[in-house]
């Protein structure tokens, strides 16, 4: 990659409002933080929606449409809409926002897995909403469902029918082989954009050795037909992002993945995290891709062909 793509995951469905006062919840907050992250250097904005009344993850297309047009009007960043939603949603619910918006890019999780959020209950806190501890406790019994049929349907409905390309989220080694299977069947086309996701309970641990092994496996499976990015969950965010840069990869930061800017210090915004990883990349003499450069690198359809 000649330039580095920074993705910012603005809110997600993992953290709950009581964990940080800076987590964007309402459409206005999501729009404001997404725009600021783009101004700080993020070429791609990865977006979830939340119920503005209590901050719980929401699949409601109307909520997506309350912030997507504003983001598009204020920035030329690539909008990447989740198809993961949360493990508590059905697949149809998870893709509803993307079906409505027809974005340039969507995330796509490449396999079913356990997805444990319940360790967050170990830290005492005053919960703002009753749903928060219940949601985290329920993750002991979550199976994040992404069957071959699910993946095929998402590729068809959002890819072939609506022209989106994908951020293929791979939480473990087998997910890379699932993606290779889809490539062998002609259901996906290069260039592939693979997000190595490390540090989620139920997936691969956030170790540099795991990252290197996943990259070597992807090199063997996909050769020059892919680019990779790295997501380190929680306290591993900046360490693994910096390792990704050293390995020639791209990076993802944002309050979906970590609420902190440094040990014990909450990030005040998504833009603060984007600014930090941008400085690290520039200190390594790496150039940051603009949104238009990211579009060219990933073969995207263009911001003029979305439905928002």
From TrEMBL:
Q: Which InterPro entries match?
A: Aldolase_TIM (IPR013785), BKACE (IPR008567)
Q: Name one Pfam family in it.
A: BKACE
Protein origin, superkingdom: Bacteria
Q: Which GO terms describe its molecular function?
A: 3-keto-5-aminohexanoate cleavage activity; metal ion binding
Required co-factors: Zn(2+)
Q: Which UniProt keywords apply?
A: Metal-binding, Transferase, Zinc
Which Gene3D superfamilies does this UniProt record tie to the protein?
Answer: Aldolase class I
Any idea what this protein is called?
Answer: 3-keto-5-aminohexanoate cleavage protein
Q: Which species does the entry assign this protein to?
A: Kaustia mangrovi
């Amino acid at each position: 990659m000649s330039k580095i793509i920074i993705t910012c995951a603005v809110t997600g469905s993992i953290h709950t409002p009581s964990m940080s006062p800076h987590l964007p919840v309402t459409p206005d907050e999501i729009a404001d933080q997404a725009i600021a992250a783009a101004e700080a250097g993020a070429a791609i904005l990865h977006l979830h929606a939340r119920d503005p009344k209590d901050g719980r993850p929401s699949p409601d297309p109307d909520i997506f449409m309350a912030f997507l047009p504003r983001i598009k009007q204020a920035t030329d960043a690539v909008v990447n809409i989740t198809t993961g939603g949360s493990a508590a949603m059905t697949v149809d619910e998870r893709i509803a926002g993307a079906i409505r918006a027809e974005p340039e890019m969507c995330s796509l999780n490449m396999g079913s897995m356990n997805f444990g959020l319940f360790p967050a209950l170990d830290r005492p806190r005053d919960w703002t909403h009753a749903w928060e501890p219940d949601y985290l406790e329920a993750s002991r019994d979550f199976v994040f469902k992404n069957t071959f049929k699910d993946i095929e349907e998402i590729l068809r409905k959002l890819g072939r029918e609506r022209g989106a390309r994908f951020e293929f989220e791979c939480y473990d080694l087998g997910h890379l082989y699932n993606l290779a299977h889809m490539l062998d069947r002609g259901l996906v086309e290069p260039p592939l954009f693979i997000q190595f996701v490390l540090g989620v309970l139920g997936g691969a641990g956030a170790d540099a050795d795991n990252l290197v092994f996943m990259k070597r496996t992807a090199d063997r499976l996909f050769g020059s037909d892919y680019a990779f990015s790295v997501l380190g969950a929680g306290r591993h965010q900046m360490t693994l992002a910096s390792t990704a840069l050293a390995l020639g990869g791209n990076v993802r930061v944002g309050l979906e993945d970590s609420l902190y800017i440094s040990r014990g210090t909450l990030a005040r915004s998504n833009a603060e995290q984007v600014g930090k990883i941008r400085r690290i990349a520039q200190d390594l003499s790496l150039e940051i891709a603009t949104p238009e450069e990211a579009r060219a690198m990933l073969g995207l359809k263009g911001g003029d062909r979305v439905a928002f």
